[in-house]
Design brief:
Length: 417
């Protein structure tokens, strides 16, 4: 199959040729014809398989073939992270090179006035995160009377309990006769039930197994005491094969702390998470893409917002809270049929969660134990922690992990991202 077989307009075909693409991926080949027939679609495919083009190419074709039914936004793409918004924008710019399309992005972390101005100037396609979109809607700057197409990218995250209330409010302001497209790498049965609120008789296009990571990703679990995770991490970085690495942690302050300690160990690293400004996040991403950073440390916001070719390794320094997050994390490597490695650190308390993950992905993950590695113990034991000590060749936990008799353990509180 070629892109010409998909009956896309010539200006779009010319733009595709300019990008160097020669043939559609499976998700594109199956989803584009259905979308071109103006059907609602649920698209499920592994990361790195071309889902963005699967909805942006037919969207551009449809908007070019029909007249606006009212002033305002004609197509709205909602995505959970600023990074994804920027990447979708860049793709649309490439694909609309030979078209006259007014495009706007809406997301937090930057001033809202330029975004308001873009809407007032008649943006036809808007790519937005839910929070900032809601803010501008409440201020009366968003006109969706002429909306033809709604796209929910990373639909599982869009419809989980964190975003669902906002999505319901946003959709209430849209025409009922719109076309609604939902795309994601994973989609649980519970979330799939929720799609009925937003779609009408959708066609489901599913490529591969939604609970199975890409086959090009080699997975491995390292069983490790919590206080020895950082020494093992430094040991792994002695290998030159780890040269473009994404490390995932569960909390924002841990990301910053771990990146700091890696940098102090002569491993160039920066953090990316929700507490950093958009400019800080973008600079870190740019440096990572340019090879100026060996490591990018992030929370799960990065798993939904990074599309970088050549990521050699993903390291789950902290075990993911949700099985679906594991799929998204390790999908940052092994993209577009390339090979990659995913390493997950598992402490003793996480063995049950690991067993649940293996049931979810329907396979056993190869395991190595901390004692299998010959590495130096004198190093920071954990993000920001003191250096562990040897006592008769046995590792001693840092003092900060000890509690005097009778003292109650203090909860860590709700994890933030």
């Amino acid at each position: 199959m070629t892109f010409s077989d998909l009956k896309l307009p010539k200006p779009i075909l010319d733009a595709i040729e300019d990008t160097g693409y020669t043939e559609p991926t499976p998700i594109q080949g199956k989803a584009i014809p259905i979308i071109m027939r103006r059907k609602d679609v649920i698209g499920i495919a592994q990361t790195g398989t071309g889902k963005t083009a699967a909805f942006t190419l037919p969207m551009l074709a449809i908007l070019g073939n029909i007249k606006p039914k009212a002033p305002g936004i004609r197509a709205l793409i909602i995505s959970p992270t600023r990074e994804l918004v920027a990447q979708i924008r860049d793709n649309i710019i490439d694909y609309s090179l030979h078209l006259n399309v007014k495009l706007a992005t809406i997301y937090g972390g930057v001033g809202e006035q330029p975004q308001i101005q873009a809407l007032q100037n008649g943006a036809e396609i808007v790519i937005a995160t839910p929070g900032r979109l809601m803010d501008l809607m409440e201020q009366g700057h968003v006109d969706m009377r002429g909306l033809e197409i709604l796209v929910m990218d990373e639909a599982d995250r869009m419809l989980d309990m964190g975003f669902l209330p906002a999505m319901r409010k946003i959709v209430k302001k849209m025409p009922n006769d719109r076309q609604t497209l939902l795309f994601s790498a994973t989609l649980s049965g519970q979330i799939e039930q929720l799609t009925r609120e937003f779609q009408q008789k959708p066609s489901t296009v599913e490529i591969g197994d939604r609970t199975n990571p890409a086959k090009t990703v080699r997975q491995c679990v390292y069983e490790i005491p919590r206080h020895l995770k950082f020494p093992l991490l430094l040991h792994l970085f002695k290998s030159p094969e780890l040269y473009t690495v994404l490390i995932f942690v569960t909390m924002k302050h841990h990301a910053s702390r771990l990146a700091k300690h890696l940098s102090q160990s002569d491993i160039p690293a920066e953090a990316i998470h929700g507490d950093r400004t958009q400019n800080q996040r973008q600079r870190a991403l740019d440096k990572f893409k340019q090879g100026k950073l060996r490591v990018l440390v992030g929370t799960d916001v990065a798993a939904r917002g990074i599309d970088i070719s050549g990521v050699t390794h993903v390291i789950n320094y902290d075990f993911p809270d949700q099985n679906e997050d594991y799929i998204h994390r390790i999908g940052r490597t092994g993209r577009a049929k390339a090979e990659g490695d995913a390493i997950t650190f598992v402490t003793e308390s996480e063995h049950r969660a690991l067993a649940d993950l293996e049931r979810f992905i329907k396979r056993d993950i190869p395991k190595k134990h901390e004692r299998d590695f010959n590495y130096d113990i004198p190093a920071p034991a954990r993000e920001g922690g003191p250096r562990p000590r040897r006592n008769n060749d046995k590792a001693v936990k840092p003092k900060s992990d000890r509690r005097s008799p009778g003292k109650k353990k203090v909860g860590r509180g709700k994890k933030n991202r």
